[in-house]
Structure formats: structure tokens, C-alpha cells
Amino acid sequence: MDVFGPWAVTTRRTRGGQANSKRWAVLFTCMSIRAVHIELIEAMDTSSYISALHRFFALRGPAKQIRSDCGTNFTGACKELHILLTDPKEPNVRRYLGEEGCSWVFNSPHSSHMGGSWERMIGFARRILNSMLMQTNPSCLTHEVLSTLMAEITAIINARPLAPISSDPESPFLLTPATLLTQKMSTYPPPPGTFDSTDLHRQQWRRVQHLANKFWSRWRREYLPTLQSRSKWQDVRPNIEKGDLVLLKDNQAKRNEWPIALVTNTFLDEDGKVRKIELKVTRSGSARTFLRPVSETILLKSAEESN
Question: How far apart are CA 169 and CA 261, in angstroms?
């Protein structure tokens, strides 16, 4: 887990204007299924963090081990809650979570690379949110708007694909962190309608949807390249073949939607390389076939692996 922020929100409106305050976000990342959970806090102190930790445990259940950096709010919360420390320099205290207890592992100072799994998610979310909210007037943001936006962002991040669980072209379901959390294959759909910049000055729920759509477009554009290598083509690489399962880079895909297609045919160029393929996509029970360049696809599972 780690903390990122802050952002200015409007807490009270007065005759002379408005009173602003800051909000931070605590991001929890599961080390097993890479699911995330975001909680808002009002201050960077031990008390606010303990409240966020209790909210997280109340919703997601207790944890056996917590890993974080050496932030003073983290170490203070660990001591106040009497959680067993794994650092030999710290005294062992009584267990906090049941008979098995909960251990807290602190990374060494100035070693953010040791938290790669959660620092990567924070890096994506922080970079996108900072660029979005810095351009947003604080008068358009309240605690309720920001809290709902964080819930939408959690759903977006947890809907990312981990691995394909079926090579059947008629039911190309994705394995996602949300699938493992909710035990449901369907994703959370966005409300119908279009939401543009004018919605920032309308009802709160429309502000949230506009900001969530902005985060989705940025998240998808920056996350997809991490799934595909961008190294220079100096080595011979195998071509995409018929029967491969690919992920489409569809700019018109709705929020939390990751279209998967089955390669039904390939077209060789004069140099023996495949640059154009025929794809089959099944949506709403109907199958469609169309052509796409290989640059707009990401290989998930080859036909050889399926066999």
C-alpha cells in the first residue's frame, strides 16, 4: 500500500467564496491477484490512516501481511494498532488480527523499486489523476465527487485483463481482478449518454462520469503499450497465426470493455511477414469478421499454447 495526492476540494461554501481543503488517497494492492482498493483520507497523519485501514478491513476482510514504505503515518499506525513488526530493530508487540496475526513489512528507506507491484499501479493512477485534477477547478470537486471518482477508478483498474481463461471464440471471457473479487464475469457498465466538459458545472454524478471517462481514455492509452514490447525489430519474431487469441486496440471501446478476437486468417507480405489479419469478434451473441493490422492487436494466447 502507499499514499498519493493531495488534491484540493471544496468543503464549505460561504458568502465570500468557498473554503478548500486537501484530500489524499491510500491505494491498497493485493499481492496475489493484483486487485486494488482506494480509500480517501483528510490528512497525512496516523489517525486518518488508521481509519482508512479499518474501512479497508471492514470491506475486504483482514490481511495476514502488509507491505509499505517507511512513511511516518504507516509506522505510527503500526505501533498504535499493535501489529506485529518484522523489522528486527522494532520491538515485537501483541498480535492484532486474530490468532494468526498480521505482520507489517517495511521496505528500506529510499528503495521505492522494492514495491514494484503497487508502485506501478500508483504511478499510472497518480500521473493521470494529477494531470486531470490540476486542470479542474477545485469548485467542481467535493469530497463526495472525489470519493465516487475513486470508486470508478478502482473499477477501471480492476477490470484490466490478467490472462485469457477461455480460447473459445464464442465466449471470449477475460480473467480480471474484478472477476476474482466479485465472482462475476460481467463488468460494471457506464451509464448511457455522453459526458463532456460542460458536465463539470452540472449535477455531481455527471461530473464524476466526465472525469471517469477522461481517466479511462488516458488509462487505456498508457496501459496498453505496457502489454506489448516496443523494442526495435532486429530479431526474427514469429508471425501471428490462424487460431491465435488477440486483444484489440479499439478506440471506440466503452469503459471497462476489453474486446478480444480470434484470428481466422492471416495475409503474408512479400517478405514473409504478417502485417494484416482477419479477426472474428463475438459481441451480444453475434459474430463479426473484419480486417485489422497487427499493430492494433496484442497477442494473448497463441494457437500452439491452446493445443
Answer: 7
pLDDT digits over 218-265, tens only? 888 877 777 665 555 566 778 888 888 888 887 777 787 888 888 998
- Dig out the grid coordinates for 212 from the structure: 471517469
Q: Is 84 within 8 Å of 96 (Cβ atoms)?
A: yes
Residue range 17-53, pLDDT digits in tens: 677 888 888 888 888 888 899 999 988 877 788 888 8
**Region 186-212 average pLDDT:** 76
The model's pLDDT over 80-100, given as tens digits with 9 standing for 90+, comes to 666 655 544 444 333 444 344
Tell me how far apart the alpha carbons of residues 133 and 20 are, in angstroms, rounded to a whole number.
14
Q: Phi-psi region for residue 5, left (φ > 0), alpha (ψ -120 to 50) or beta?
A: left
Provide the residue count of the chain: 307
What is the residue whose three cell numbers read 478506440?
251
Does residue 303 or residue 86 have the better pLDDT? 303
Predicted local distance difference test score (pLDDT) of residue 39: 92
Contact 216, 255 (CB under 8 A): yes
Pairwise CA distance, residues 197 & 170, whole Å: 38
**Distance set, CA 118 to CA 2, 45, 223 (Å):** 8, 21, 15
Q: Residue 266 and residue 89: Cα distance in Å, rounded?
A: 61
